[in-house]
What we know:
The protein is of the alpha/beta class and 227 residues long. The protein has 7 helices and 10 strands. The strands form 2 sheets. A 6-stranded mixed sheet has the order 6-7-8-3-9-10, with helices on both faces. Strands 2-1-4-5 form a 4-stranded antiparallel sheet, with helices on one face.
Amino acid sequence: MIQVIDIRKTYRVGKIEIAALQGISFEIKEGEFISITGPSGSGKSTLMHILGCLDRPSSGKLFLDDMEVGKLKDNALAEIRNRKIGFVFQQFNLLSRSTSLRNVELPLIYAGVNRRERAERARIALERVEMAHRLYHRPNELSGGERQRIAIARALVTNPSLVLADEPTGNLDSKTGEGILELFQKLHLQGHTLIVVTHEIYVSGYAQRIIHLKDGLIEQDEIRNRT
Ligand SMILES: Nc1ncnc2c1ncn2[C@@H]1O[C@H](COP(=O)(O)OP(=O)(O)OP(=O)(O)O)[C@@H](O)[C@H]1O
Ligand SMILES: [Mg+2]
């Protein structure tokens, strides 16, 4: 479903070059739940931005559903991103003046879905994250864990083939974080393909496969036997 072939990313800051990714290759099958771990600065977020088509690699190839992403123009890339990928961020990135329902509807507005269908699909996504009782709350009227659930509903509402999360539990206490991870596990069992970036060990414990990065390279790619 996703193929990453010798991806490199070099950032240039003034005269200094930073080789954030130095040749990364792997494949992701539909329905996998992968955690990407590694120390700070190892290239996790850089890789996730490339997988999410938010940024382009300096070299190497990325195939998404057999389509070579590197060949697409910016607007085509943006469309792929809207249609196929759902994002969850550490800081939730919700619109502070908008209700849960409105926040979750947002990707559907971009996708040109009509009002009635938008409301219906947003409501279903909010039910899936157990937030049906908070449809009209605004982010500042919600707890951190609840905000992250709203953000997850927003990521799911377009029915993306891939959900990417960068440190989704980073702003949550460990108990609330575990609730979010259990939700990811439920989504995995329902067939979603998930990639969760984290540097916390307990987070990667929920995944089925752990890709460990170090200095911009894959140090270990481990499939776990879950009991
Ligand atoms: N936009 C940028 N411009 C220049 N250098 C960058 C940029 N983004 C990241 N880097 C550098 O690339 C390297 C990898 O950064 P990245 O954000 O991918 O690390 P990370 O593994 O996500 O770390 P953390 O766990 O702290 O989030 C770091 O050395 C960082 O300083
Ligand atoms: Mg990061």
